[in-house]
Design a protein that fits this description.
3 domains; alpha+beta; Immunoglobulin-like; 16 strands; 45% helix; 469 residues; 17 helices; 5-stranded antiparallel β-sheet; elongated
């Protein structure tokens, strides 16, 4: 018995699902989301901003360009907050409508939709594809299979090329590709990402959602009886069975389900929604569209399979009553936390200073006396200009009488810092000998600049000044 169960499981994993095409409200929404997500993904690297790529993660220069914003490795806290907001948003969406992200915006779903659309255009709909796969190899079958895979590979390669374009300027990447001058890592990631797209969307498809995606496993702890999910109304549909359109199915003791199995045929993961809520359901709504079409032909009310909550089905609530339970405490708490974090995130980005200063003491020489009765200490200033305009910095120091700052290789204490620049500048700070007791003394190194919009930017960093015996 256990062996039979194992063999059935292995056959299920190996078996290929041929989803049937379907039209309807949710099918149109899937097309819209496929178009929008790919418009963003494929189009974003080509946008220009002030003479550079608008979105570029330049790992070599350790700069992340996001339109007018430039993030540095020191800004990793922003990435952490963004990941927290994304995780909480996923919890919110799941609490409201289950695996809504999986059904409409997940890259696996989106690229599977694209590849299945190509497959249908080349090989035909469900029955035609089943017959083609079962048929012996012939010139026609070889031609169709080669055409399908050629189109898949073009889409997969373009996806890999676009992915690399987020880390290398995509216009330069195209020129280097035509000249076959890409670096080894660029070749690797382009081919690897393209191969992953081709394999996941062309072959693995629903297996990724069934057996590899961790989200499918823990979504059950984030839904509750008031979560909107794709639900089969058993009270209305059972007992199921075939019948004539003109027959009185109620008198025959039948429910509204005609047992046509179209809901199974259109499901991209191959499940039967009539068996109840399952973690394999990605919430795409294809079965809803298919069932509504059948109900229309039978002149039955739509909604035998619909987006609603388990509690609404059990209690016989109307759609308005079910929607009234959406704004329950856990949803409001998620939304409040997300709004608070998002507001803090945006405010922090808007108010952050475009100037950053780090003071590093030269530990090789603590202090030395120079002509003129002065004592000098040597420092290195790491200066970062995160704005898209140059800055002229005026350096000063406070904490001891008579402190003076001299930037090496500069005419004075002023330094010109280019846009998006990160410079390590050697400076010396001098003080009159005898103005303080021997030993270290706390000081403040100050950098002051005026931005092109007239805003005064100041940064003050603590350090120490050493007086010799």
């Amino acid at each position: 018995m256990q062996s039979d169960t194992l063999e059935h499981t292995i056959d299920e994993v190996r078996g290929k699902i041929h989803p049937r095409s379907v039209s309807g409200v949710f099918a149109r929404w899937r097309v819209v989301f496929v178009f929008l997500t790919q418009l963003v993904f494929y189009g974003m690297p080509w946008l220009q901003w002030n003479g550079r790529q608008a979105v570029l993660f330049d790992l070599g220069a350790r700069k992340f360009y996001l339109f007018g914003l430039v993030l540095w490795p020191q800004d990793v806290v922003y990435l952490a907050v963004l990941l927290v907001i994304s995780a909480l948003s996923l919890f919110l969406f799941t609490a409201v409508a289950g695996r809504l992200f999986c059904g409409y915006a997940c890259p696996q779903t989106v690229y599977t939709e694209i590849f299945m659309w190509i497959e249908r255009r080349v090989e035909g709909d469900r029955l035609a594809r089943i017959r083609l796969d079962a048929a012996p190899w012939s010139l026609r079958k070889l031609r169709l299979k080669l055409a399908k895979h050629a189109l898949w590979i073009v889409v997969a390669w373009w996806t890999g090329y676009t992915f690399i374009g987020y880390f290398t300027p995509i216009r330069d990447l195209g020129a280097a590709l035509l000249a076959l001058q890409l670096g080894p890592w660029q070749w690797f990631w382009m081919l690897f990402y393209g191969f992953a797209t081709w394999g996941n969307a062309g072959f693995m498809r629903e297996a990724v959602c069934k057996y590899m995606c961790p989200y499918a496993r823990f979504q059950s702890v984030m839904v509750d009886p008031d979560t909107f999910v794709v639900t089969y109304d058993q009270g209305r549909g059972e007992p199921r069975g075939g019948r004539s359109r003109k027959a009185d199915h109620r008198a025959a003791g039948l429910g509204d389900c005609v047992d046509c199995s179209l809901c199974v045929q259109v499901c991209p993961t191959g499940i039967d929604i009539r068996d109840g809520l399952q973690y394999l359901c990605i919430g795409c709504g294809a079965c809803v569209d298919a069932c509504d079409q059948v109900m229309g032909k039978m002149q039955y009310p739509a909604g035998l399979i619909r987006y609603t909550s388990q509690r609404a089905v059990q209690e016989g609530w109307s759609a308005r009553q079910a929607r009234a339970r959406l704004l329950r405490p856990r949803v409001l708490i998620y939304a409040a936390i997300i709004l608070a974090l998002s507001a803090a995130f945006v405010a922090s980005l808007a108010l952050r200073s475009p100037l950053r200063v780090d003071v590093i003491r030269d530990r090789g020489v603590l202090a030395r006396e120079v002509p003129g009765g002065m004592v000098e200490n040597v420092y290195r200033l790491q200066l970062i200009n995160t704005s898209d305009a140059p800055m002229r910095l005026h350096l000063a120091a406070g904490g001891l009488p008579g402190l003076a700052v001299h930037a090496e290789r500069q005419a004075g204490p002023d330094i010109l810092l280019e846009p998006y620049a990160n410079r390590l500048v050697p400076v010396v700070i001098r003080a009159p000998a005898g103005t303080a007791a021997p030993g270290p003394h706390p000081i403040q190194v100050q950098a002051r600049a005026q931005t092109p919009d007239g805003r005064l930017v100041e940064r003050s960093e603590p350090s120490s000044f050493y007086m010799p015996d």
